Amino acid sequence: MNPASPTTGRAPRRRRSANRVPITVYVALGAMVFFSVFPLYWMFVVATTDSATATSLPPHVLPGGNFLHLANLVFETVPFVQALVNSVIISTTIGVGQAVLCALAGFAFAKLQFPGRNTLFLIVVLTMTVPAQLAIIPQYLIMSQLDWVDTLQAVIVPGLVTAFGIFWMRQHMVGTLNDELMHAARVDGATTWQIFWRIAFPLVRPAAFVLGLFGFVNAWNDFLWPFIVLKSPEQYTAQIAIKALQNNRDIDLGLAMSGSFLATLPLLVLFVFVGRRLVQGIMEGAFKG
């Protein structure tokens, strides 16, 4: 028994050394985190000092004490509070709309039988290859005909459904919802809407949450379409308000960075609360795929 004891004692040490993560992995992850976070930190540094900080050599790397003054200038120069409220309304509506409507379309393409289903889904997928800029002119003409120019619905309605969202939810419906479960629900007298809302949607809720969060962030950061269709200052979103902080001849980088940081702060707070669920939803989709 004694000769076997040293062997038994050395085996766990070999297993621990085999599972040890190389130091190069930590170095690579640290570098990725640094290059990801540093632009945000530099934006905050400039937002707490002045425009000279962005161009000074050697550069300043420590925050200053001018942030509150610049923030007050932001609120005095443009209706920034109203812009933030508009961004919240637009982004929340688009996020919720994409989560529900794209799930509905994905359920139809995945589990319902109707003529032209595969052809329509192919057309939806092909629209992802078309640059979004090509749709701006016809989209603006439609908004003009509906008399929606300079209204929030002109920004909300075109973003409620996306081709990627339909494709994303359709793939999750195919891999998650069993046909036998649907047949059993129909035998019990459930309608198609009841099957979707009580069975299908709860099964794909993590994927719908991720899609809705992506839609919220994209709508919050969108600049081009709101800049074209919104004219009045009271209808501005946060991104257009940041653009309004810049003069035609020169740019006050401290003021612009202060507004940018104020517009980014809600996204950071959102990620603190839902970041874990976001990663969990993405990983669940990856494993199911």
From TrEMBL:
Any stretches that span the bilayer, and where are they?
Answer: 21-44, 83-108, 120-142, 148-168, 195-217, 253-274
Q: Which family does it belong to?
A: Belongs to the binding-protein-dependent transport system permease family.
Predominant localisation class: membrane
PANTHER family, per the entry: ABC TRANSPORTER PERMEASE PROTEIN MG189-RELATED (PTHR43744:SF12), ABC TRANSPORTER PERMEASE PROTEIN MG189-RELATED-RELATED (PTHR43744)
Q: What organism is the protein native to? A: Plantactinospora alkalitolerans
Tell me where in or outside the cell this protein is found.
Answer: Cell membrane
Name of the protein in question:
Carbohydrate ABC transporter permease
Instruction: Name the Pfam families on file.
Output: BPD_transp_1
At the top level, the lineage of the source is Bacteria
Entry keyword annotation includes Nucleus: no
Every ABC transmembrane type-1 domain range: 84-274
Report how it sits in the membrane: Multi-pass membrane protein
What are the alphabetically sorted keywords of the record?
A: Cell membrane, Membrane, Transmembrane, Transmembrane helix, Transport
